[in-house]
Amino acid sequence: MSVRWGVLGAGWLVNQATAAAIHNADGAVLYATAARDIDRARATQPQIAYDSYAAVLDDPHVDAVYICLSNDAHLPWIEASIAAGKHVLCEKPLVLTAEQAERAFALADNAGVHLVEATWSRWHPRMRRIVELATSGALGEISNYLGTFTFDSMTEGNYRLSPDHGGGALYDVGIYPLHALIACLPDVTSFDIMQVDRVMSDHGVDVTTTATLTWGGDSRASIAGSFVMPESQRLTIRGSAGEVTVTDNQAFTTWRAASTLRVGDHVEEFPTVDAYQIMFEEMSALIRGGDGWLLPPQDSIRVAQTVDALRLHSA
Ligand SMILES: NC(=O)c1ccc[n+]([C@@H]2O[C@H](COP(=O)([O-])OP(=O)(O)OC[C@H]3O[C@@H](n4cnc5c(N)ncnc54)[C@H](OP(=O)(O)O)[C@@H]3O)[C@@H](O)[C@H]2O)c1
């Protein structure tokens, strides 16, 4: 039987991509959507629409909840969903601090439900290949990493510019290169921060965060996240035995398009996929007792710890 998903929120991402991803996913149905405006919920074409998020959690037919709300609302709705006995897939950043992440995963463990951060890039076959190359030793000892996710179009009124709603470029886009870094270095338990530069807006959020981290010796990772820099999504990883580079400047958001990866002096090709759909399919399969890959809790906690450290370092 298909997993019946309940969606909290019907904003940009749900309309742009994730409602369709659930509709298209094998083993999943978009059973319920809730939005403050029920017409926006209905527009996602669920079997049932609600005007309250709590109504989704009260609905016994909902197996799993997908939280796609402003970042400050993640933790309370994760906690409420787990208390209602639902599996939870929550948009990135899962929560705002490592302490919150640890608390949320402990709650999920105790309740016997899955809690997963929906950092969709991690499900993309090209990213899975990058991580495989990095962690299998094929690149040798990794010494150098460059990851950027920057763009230059943020509209006034967007929650991303509000400190009260968990806004800021580090939470919004900086965590993509951090997730890839952490996935490629599973044995590194913490990074030393060499430099952090944060440009703050009048609203009180970082519109740019750039940082350099090290994990010993001459190792260096540079990451950038920004709302006010030219569009860039680069990813290069260099090791003692080789280098991989995403060549299309879409390292983290390749969507319904073919993609390529330069590995040393040859290019690997990846067919068109919808990584959001893969994410819903794999989680639905696991919930049904089958096989599927999920982003490990430990990776979400390590990213949250690194975000904490970057925020603290620059405070
Ligand atoms: N994985 C990805 O590719 C990706 C891409 C973009 C965003 N995201 C993540 O997805 C989440 C939503 O992003 P989005 O771009 O869809 O944002 P958005 O269009 O601004 O939607 C935010 C949602 O939050 C809800 N909300 C509740 N209270 C709110 C308040 N006081 N102010 C603003 N919104 C409020 C709204 O729900 P109602 O519908 O009930 O009004 C709205 O639909 C964020 O966590 C973001 O980081 C992920």
Concise description?
The protein has nine helices and 14 strands. With 315 residues, the protein is an alpha/beta fold.
Description of the structure:
It is a single chain. α4 packs parallel to α5 and α7 packs across α9. The strands form two sheets. The protein has an eight-stranded mixed β-sheet, with helices on one face. A six-stranded parallel β-sheet has the order 3-2-1-4-5-6, sandwiched between helices. Helices cover 34% and strands 28% of the residues. It is an alpha/beta fold. The protein starts with a strand and ends with a helix. It is built from nine helices and 14 strands. The structure holds NADP nicotinamide-adenine-dinucleotide phosphate. NADP nicotinamide-adenine-dinucleotide phosphate binds next to α1. Keywords: Oxidoreductase. GO terms for molecular function: nucleotide binding; oxidoreductase activity.
Q: What keyword list fits this structure?
A:
34% helix, single chain, binds NADP nicotinamide-adenine-dinucleotide phosphate, 28% strand, eight-stranded mixed beta sheet, Dihydrodipicolinate Reductase, domain 2, alpha/beta
